Amino acid sequence: MTPPPSRGLVGLGIGLAAAGVATAAGVAAGRVTRERTARLAVLAPAGAYAHVADRELAVVADDGVPLHVEVDDPADDAARKGAPTVVLSHGYTLSLRSWVLQRKALTRAGYRVVLWDQRSHGRSEVAASESCTIDQLGRDLHRVIEEVVPEGPLALIGHSMGGMTMMSMAEQFPEVVRERVVAAAFVATSAGGTNMMTLGFGQFVGRLLGRLGPRFLARMGTQQKLVNTARRLGRDVEDLIVDHYSFASPVAQHTVRYTGDMIMGTPLQVMADFLPSINVHDKQAALAQFHGVETLVVNGQQDLLTPPDHSEAIVRLVPGAEHVVVEDAGHIIMLEHPEVINEQLLELIDRGMRAATAHVDIERKPRVRRTVTDLSKRRRVAKARRSGRSA
Questions:
Q1: Which residues pair with 183 in a beta bridge?
Q2: Nearest by Cα to 114 from 57, 182, 184
Q3: Which residues of 361-379 are buried (b: 16+ CB within 10 A; e: fewer)?
């Protein structure tokens, strides 16, 4: 049946408008991509994200899911006597590769580093949908520690969903935190208690996304091959979206692609599986287990996924916690401002080791809040752009 003229014209108009928007977005994205490739490559030189672990292994979770784990050992002349093992937990739709610059810095500083891919992420096995919960991730982290770091002091570091995983483990296995953890860092994360899925659009739209997001992603997940094809055809637009939600300052094209490959390499069904648990996440009570632990809370000033108020809530619940806000920083802060994050983590672990040795009452420390500007990066970006204009 031929559609009525008016309906056909409306459909044609919508189609042309969509095509126009997509074309405009593609042109704009292409311009941004060219600048990141030509001028900003200095921010992520060749080989910056290359790394080979000293050891790889599989740790079997309590429900039988194999979890991919990597271990880096410091050189003998760099190893610190009595130092904690650092355990890094990554965020939603990322993998342990997101910590590549931190694992290098920590190992150089003399620490043993353990990283793992959370279930259904990275190289860990895809788990049953019903097991994709924050509570299960807490049990997974405990299994990794139990298997790979069965004794000795620990420093726990978690980004986004990885921070939630730390809270979940503390809630279920409080003795691990009380007896072994000397330092904890919550990076761009949240203790929950409010709607998590705002994406910078506010609570009303956030609640709508929280309800509809899992169903939409699950439906799209049945067309994963088609989605993968669309990705290849529209990489510039994909990069523009990844850049918007991940960063708040100029980064190299290699950084955007590296991040986008982690995010979009996560199957849509896996994204859908975890969203309901993230959206109702509330581990505020679990933060009581970190009382007396040297704690750092870090967030980007322009983070759209876990805005600064989420970090401020964690600080209020952990006496003595230090709060560092990084200007011109988004959600994937450890790749956007790696030198700042590396410095903050190394200082945190040093404080934790000193406090454990001197038996410092950390809960009595005054709260410290600092705003940090990555001046070194600003200078490098300005210099790169001046060089580009001269050329």
A1: 155, 294
A2: 57
A3: ebeebeeeeeebebeebee
Please determine, looking at this structure, whether the domain spanning 55-197+276-390 carries the CATH number 3.30.700.20.
Answer: no
Alpha-carbon distances, residue 362 vs 189, 290, 368 (angstroms): 22, 10, 12
Confidence of residue 21 (pLDDT cuts 50, 70, 90): very low
Cα–Cα dist 331/314, whole Å: 17
- Select from 381, 223, 370, 357 the least CA-distant residue to 311: 370
Return the number of other C-beta atoms located less than 10 Å from residue 226's C-beta. 10
How many residues comprise the chain? Answer: 391
Average pLDDT over residues 65-77: 95
Strands 294-300 and 55-60, bridge-based pairing: unpaired
Distance, in Å, from the CA atom of 120 to the CA atom of 125, rounded to the nearest integer, reads 5
* Interior angle at CA 169, CA 167 and CA 171, nearest 5: 70
Q: Contact 156/87 with Cβ under 8 angstroms?
A: yes
Q: What is the pLDDT of residues 32-62, one digit of tens each?
A: 555 555 578 888 888 999 999 999 999 999 9
Confidence of residue 17 (pLDDT cuts 50, 70, 90): very low
Model pLDDT, residue 37: 55
Q: How far is CA 159 from CA 39, 164, 222, 352, in A?
A: 29, 8, 29, 19
Cα separation, 135 vs 166, in Å, equals: 10
Which has the closest alpha carbon to 279: 347, 190, 358, 172?
190
User: 341 vs 229, which has greater pLDDT?
Assistant: 341
Task: Report yes or no: 327 and 374 within 8 Å, Cβ to Cβ.
Answer: yes
Nearest CA among 158, 155, 154 for reference residue 168: 158
Average pLDDT, integer, range 111-137: 98
What is the pLDDT at residue 27? 43
pLDDT at 71 exceeding the cut of 90: yes
Phi/psi at 58 (5° precision) = -110, 130
Facing residues of 299 across strands? 325
Closest CA to 74 of 349, 361, 370, 262: 349
Identify the pLDDT of residue 78: 87
**Cα 178 from Cα 371, distance rounded (Å):** 30
- Residues 366 and 186: their CA atoms lie apart, in Å, by 18
CA–CA separation, 313 and 291 (whole Å)? 15
For the stretch 172-200, pLDDT in tens is 999 999 999 999 999 999 999 765 555 44
